[in-house]
Design goal:
The complex is a heterotrimer of chains A (261), B (254) and C (244). Chain A has 11 helices and no strands. Chain A is an all-alpha fold. Chain A has a single domain, classed as MetI-like fold, CATH 1.10.3720.10. In chain B, helix 4 crosses helix 5. The longest helix of chain C has 19 residues. The N and C termini of chain C lie far apart (67 Å). In chain C, helix 2 crosses helix 8. Chain C has 9 helices and 14 strands. The chains are: A mainly alpha (261), B alpha/beta (254), C alpha/beta (244). Chains in contact: A-B, A-C. At the A-B interface, helix 7 and helix 8 of A face helix 3, strand 6, helix 4 and helix 6 of B.
Chain lengths: 261, 254, 244
């Protein structure tokens, strides 16, 4: 009685390397070490302007990570609530979650960012970073909601029935039996959303949040070195997403232990 | 010998009382005016062709299926009364499924201890001690640390029985426990069930295993098209079936 | 044979028509800078600079085409030849003169500090530890960066900085004075005010930026600007757009 592995459609995150890929030359290694080599070459042999550019970016990298981690945390919470809402038998909760997902998915991310950022500005006085994080988290929460829903539905109803028959109530069943198993199905798409979100944080530079991209643009607008600056920005984003995709694939591999042993 | 004793002993003490139950799936009538009482310690085997409603009947006992009308009283509590604590009732009624349904993310031992620890607040070492005794009973001690996917179907079903027993239920429900097994594994599961029966457990078993029914059952219930057509001791049912459809069913099976 | 005749005729037509027609100069405009250049309610790019260049075109004999382009990257587009010139309130600075050529100045500008109406701030020096916004790559933004202890925050459009200022996310905005006047006296007259005109030491002038060595375009522009600057039309435009 082995369940068929459930595959959830992946979005526009990075390709997650398969940890079983053997051999010296994997796509991940070529991209990662290749990118590092190019950065090293540029910084060592053409310090003017590449060293100057890279020196200009660190606080932007920090901001990008802050926005990413805070947004993903918010998105996971909202996503779990929305996902549970979508499968809930409570009409109000179900309808609220479905409406949230429908509305958010129907509006381009950039438009939502602008909307939430400026609308929020008129309602409450929050710092720009917080406004950007709320906007990103709110949007990605809807995407996560669908991922959670699919993950929960991928768990055989027999698991739920077995848990109920032992005397667990619905929420205990969700907590002890369904969600711990759903993580296995949910993690790859969540990892993808995480990387997609990290890349999409570049959109918050439009909201004047000083992330990697905005720092780079500030440098370019002053030095007029557009090509060189964007080259470095692209390389740095690539290094970050490659590292993250590697970490995620390892975590995923670990989480699968009880299926593989 | 033992089965007649227990029946007589508890003759006026029904632990399960099903009265005039109807169940619809849309317009399809899954249960049609079903009434059945099971006394404490009794072993009831439910037979019938597939689609006859026997699994549905079993699942209404712990409300995995709700009913359209009628009443079901388990150990003095109305299963479908919104006022009764269904989770408490379910904890007293162990259930074994056709597809085992072991928790795939938990080891064998953790499958057994999860409910006692979380629901009964048993200390872990006490729960594990109890779990190991149950695993010994079903012959699965050496697989305590294994995960469900590493076990054969027969092994999984024996663990599933032990898991249900870990909550010390008063009643055990078996929903076609051997139907998903390869033939060579059926025996090991039936052996465990026979042992359990000998210990006096109240059991309601939906199965196609006629040998088990003959050996263990106090009474056999025959269902077809959502109705109970015949309730009889196994000898009388198998040797002198009263209803015409019972006869036809036995001819096809035996 | 017939083909040859047609081809020859076509070529002749081309040559003659291009010789007769005026030179077309394509200007890149970031039309988010009222009243100098912006998009009006009829979705047309209008403003002081636009009127000025249209007049200059008439005087010097070229056809102006205005192309609305985002500010960030406007000089990269010039360098890659997407248009001939940038007419977008570009202050003539030393750094910019290193990478491009400028026409003669057509407007004198200073940097204004805009704050909330109830703010006691009088100068950039009062804003230590505060966030001050400006449009990315503008002289206003560079002035903020040059001010000690002030956190500079760059925006794609000056309007976004004004919005953030009005909701209190930043403490002040620095931009060209005609633009500051437009925002503080018009759109945000209830919430914002001009605190001061920043003395940067040097006077700033707007010029039209072209690629280095593009003398053909530059000569036409200079000819046009020079003749317009001598007319009364300048006062007329001042009155129309800036109200002074």
């Amino acid at each position: 009685m082995r369940d068929k592995p459930v595959v959830i459609e992946v979005g526009d995150g990075a390709a997650i390397p398969d940890p079983r890929d053997e051999g010296l030359f994997t796509a991940w290694r070529i991209s990662f070490f290749g990118t590092l080599a190019i950065i090293a070459y540029l910084v060592v042999f053409r310090p003017d302007p590449y060293l100057d550019i890279i020196k200009f970016l660190p606080d932007g990298i920090v901001v990008t990570f802050q926005v990413t981690f805070a947004s993903i945390a918010l998105a996971l919470v909202l996503g779990l609530i929305a996902g549970l809402g979508r499968i809930s038998k409570n009409t109000f909760f179900n309808l609220a979650a479905s409406t949230y997902i429908e509305v958010v998915r129907g509006i381009p991310l950039l438009v939502q960012l602008f909307y939430i950022y400026f609308a929020l500005g008129h309602l409450v006085r929050v710092p720009d970073m917080v406004a950007a994080i709320v906007a990103m988290g709110f949007c990605y929460g809807a995407y996560m909601g669908e991922v959670f829903r699919a993950g929960i539905l991928s768990i055989d109803t027999g698991q739920t029935e077995a848990s109920l028959s032992l005397g667990f109530n619905r929420s205990q069943t969700m907590r002890y039996v369904v969600l711990p198993q759903a993580w296995r199905t949910i993690l790859p798409p969540v990892g993808n959303e995480f990387i997609a979100l990290l890349k999409d944080t570049s959109l918050v530079s439009i909201l004047a949040v000083s992330d990697i991209l905005r720092r780079g643009r500030e440098f370019a607008s002053e030095s007029f070195l557009y090509f060189e600056t964007y080259t470095m920005i692209a390389l740095i984003y690539l290094v970050i997403t490659l590292i993250l995709s590697k970490i995620l694939s390892n975590v995923e591999h670990r989480l699968n232990h009880y299926e593989r042993r | 010998m033992w089965n007649t004793d227990s029946t007589i002993m508890n003759a006026d003490n029904p632990i399960i009382s099903i009265q005039k139950v109807h169940k619809f799936f849309g317009t399809f009538k899954a249960l049609d005016d079903v009434s059945l009482t099971v006394n404490a310690g009794q072993k009831v085997v439910v037979l019938g062709p597939s689609g006859s409603g026997k699994s549905t009947l079993l699942r209404t006992i712990n409300r995995l299926e709700t009913i359209s009308s009628g009443s079901i009283i388990v150990d003095g509590q109305d299963v479908n009364d919104p006022g009764s604590d269904i989770n408490r009732i379910r904890a007293e009624v162990g259930m074994v499924f056709q597809s085992f349904n072991l928790f795939r993310h938990k080891s064998v031992l953790d499958n057994l201890t999860l409910a006692p620890i979380k629901l009964k607040k048993e200390p872990r070492d006490q729960a594990e001690h109890h779990a190991m005794k149950l695993l010994e009973k079903v012959g699965m001690v050496d697989k305590a640390e294994s995960y469900p996917v590493q076990l054969s179907g027969g092994q999984q079903q024996r663990v599933a029985i032990a898991r249900a027993l870990a909550m010390n239920p008063k009643i055990m429900l078996f929903d076609e426990p051997t139907s998903a097994l390869d033939p060579e594994m059926i025996g090991e599961v039936l052996d465990v069930m026979v042992t359990l029966a000998r210990e006096g457990m109240t059991m309601v078993v939906v199965t196609h295993e006629m040998g088990f029914a003959r050996e263990v059952a106090d009474s056999v219930v025959f269902m077809d098209e959502g109705k109970i057509l015949e309730i009889a001791p196994p000898n009388r049912f198998f040797d002198h079936p009263v209803h015409e459809r019972s006869r036809r069913f036995l001819e096809q099976i035996l | 044979m017939f083909k040859k005749i047609v081809l020859t005729l076509a070529m002749l037509l081309c040559v003659s028509s291009s010789a007769m027609a005026e030179k077309t100069i394509v200007f890149a405009v970031d039309a988010t800078w009222p009243p100098m250049e912006f998009v009006n309610s009829d979705k047309q790019v209008v403003g002081y600079s636009i009127d000025y260049m249209t007049a200059a075109a008439k005087a010097a004999g070229f056809t102006p085409v205005f192309k609305n382009v985002a500010w960030d990257g406007i000089f990269a587009g010039l360098a890659s030849g997407k248009y001939d010139a940038v007419c977008s309130s570009v202050s003539i600075t030393e750094a910019r003169q290193k990478v491009m050529d400028f026409s003669i100045p057509y407007f004198k500008v200073r940097q204004a500090l805009i704050v909330a109406k109830d703010s006691p701030v009088k100068s950039l020096a009062d804003l230590k530890g505060e966030k001050v916004g400006g449009q990315i790559g503008t002289t206003g933004y560079f002035a903020i960066k040059g001010a000690e202890g002030v956190e500079a925050k760059s925006y794609d459009e000056v309007g976004l900085a004004m919005e953030d200022l009005s909701v209190g996310r930043i403490a002040a905005v620095v931009c060209d004075d005609p633009v500051a006047a437009n925002y503080a006296m018009d759109q945000y007259k209830e919430t914002l005010k001009i605190a001061t005109i920043i003395e940067t030491g040097e006077v700033e002038y707007y010029g039209i930026a072209v690629n280095k060595g593009n003398t053909e375009v530059l000569d036409l522009l200079n000819k046009g600007i020079e003749s317009v600057s001598k007319t009364d039309y300048v006062q007329e435009m001042q009155h129309k757009w800036i109200g002074q």
